[in-house]
From TrEMBL:
SUPFAM superfamilies referenced in this protein's UniProt entry, alphabetically: Acyl-CoA N-acyltransferases (Nat)
Highest taxon of source: Bacteria
Protein name, entry field: Vancomycin resistance protein VanK
Native source organism of the sequence: Nocardioides marmoribigeumensis
Keywords: Acyltransferase, Cell shape, Cell wall biogenesis/degradation, Peptidoglycan synthesis, Transferase
Keyword Cell wall biogenesis/degradation in record: yes
Any Pfam family matching the protein: FemAB
Family stated for the protein in its record: Belongs to the FemABX family.
InterPro entries: Acyl_CoA_acyltransferase (IPR016181), FEMABX (IPR003447), PG_Glycine_Bridge_Synth (IPR050644)
Length: 377
């Protein structure tokens, strides 16, 4: 008979030890991410079978105004056996622990895949005027394990958090990934569309130099990245994060593992034309943030920076290069289609995850908090 599981607070070192024993986990579930999200209270929790740690999670607590009650949030986590026959065995002790910590509600993002689409299908969907969303394109595969998790969560009373455009309440439900397992540079290039291959060649021909910024040059180069990132935000109409956020991100993640986070730059004749941030946990590499200059766009610095990161991922033995979120829209008139086209050009696949799920622990407080968030916009 399987031993019952218990959940309790663990140290960041215990948490990191568990992470290092896995092939990979989301970078949002490493202990250092709690330091990055400094406006949330953080806790590392472990699932124990006897004295053995068999699961772990980073919990971020957001306080209700004027009350010592919290929304407990596990972004893209926890890291447990999601293929277990009875998920309640894993989730019930977590709920009990978080309730004891003052949680009125729990939000989590099970790191399980439900559907996948290949690049060719998405490209055809964009070209088809009758197709408006990814849902209208037949998936390449449906993952039975993901379907079981979604069904089990509904049965256990968890509520799926849907948001317009396919973005869940916190993290994107749809991501675009390039599988790297068993591939070399030539194979990855061959999987890209003609435009991407042409742009990578053009960048090299124009003399664009792209690569990882050495640790001893990081501080000033990060400031240059941020200047370019603010410029990108103004051009593309989004609100930029402050420089201090990225400084904290590099300090915290870099202290946990020197290869956890890296800055890549693409330069042309001394001018910074693109800069990107890479995060890696185990065999999974993420393109986390990017910036590009409006000037000299013809030298294709963004493609050069991406290709430098993909080559780095291959060199480290990564099995996935993750370009993070896309929306589910394939409508030609939607402004997000340009981003989808850029990512689809890498020849990878769109991946749908189970999304984010809430469990109200105190229904009255949970309802009041969701209304408060809605009023804040």
């Amino acid at each position: 008979m399987t031993s019952p599981l218990s959940v309790r607070t663990i140290t960041p070192d215990q948490h990191l030890g568990f992470v290092r024993a896995q092939d990979s986990v989301s970078f949002l579930q490493v202990p250092a991410w709690g330091e990055v999200k400094s406006d949330w209270r953080r806790e590392s929790v472990g699932w124990f079978r006897g004295e053995e740690v068999v699961g772990a999670g980073l919990v971020l607590y957001r306080q209700v105004p004027r009350l010592k009650r919290y929304l407990a949030y596990l972004p893209e986590g926890p890291v447990i056996d999601w293929e277990a026959e009875d998920l309640a065995v894993w989730l019930d002790p977590m709920v009990s622990h978080l309730k004891g910590q003052g949680a009125f509600g729990i939000r989590m993002g099970p790191p399980v895949v439900t559907r996948r689409w290949d690049a060719a299908s998405i490209k055809a969907g964009v070209a088809d005027e009758s197709v408006r969303t990814l849902d209208q394109v037949p998936p390449l595969t449906r993952e039975p394990a993901g379907a079981r998790v979604v069904s089990a969560l509904r049965t256990l009373g968890w509520r799926e958090q849907k948001a317009e455009g396919g973005f869940a309440a916190g993290q994107p439900q749809y991501n675009f990934q390039v599988p790297l397992a068993g591939k070399d540079e030539d194979a990855v290039l061959a999987g890209m569309n003609q435009q991407w291959r042409r742009n990578i060649k053009k960048a090299a021909k124009e003399g664009v130099v792209a690569g990882r910024v050495p640790a001893d040059q990081l501080a000033p180069r990060l400031e240059e990245f941020h200047d370019l990132y603010v410029h990108t935000a103004e051009r593309d109409h989004f609100t930029p994060r402050p420089l201090s956020y990225f400084q904290t991100m590099f300090r915290a993640l870099g202290a946990e593992d020197p290869d956890r986070i890296a800055l890549f730059t693409a330069e042309h004749e001394g001018d910074l034309v693109a800069a990107t941030i890479l995060v890696q946990v185990g065999t999974h590499v993420w393109y986390s943030y990017g910036a590009s200059s409006t000037d000299k766009r013809e030298v294709r610095g963004s493609n050069a920076a991406q290709w430098a990161m993909i080559r780095h991922a291959l060199a480290t033995g990564a099995t996935v290069y993750d370009l993070r979120g896309i929306t589910d829209t394939l409508d030609e008139d939607d402004s997000h289609v340009g981003l989808i086209r850029f990512k689809v050009g890498t020849g990878g696949e769109a991946v749908e995850h189970a999304g984010e799920w809430d469990l109200p622990v105190n229904r009255a407080l949970y309802k009041a908090f969701t209304l408060y968030l809605a009023r804040r916009g």
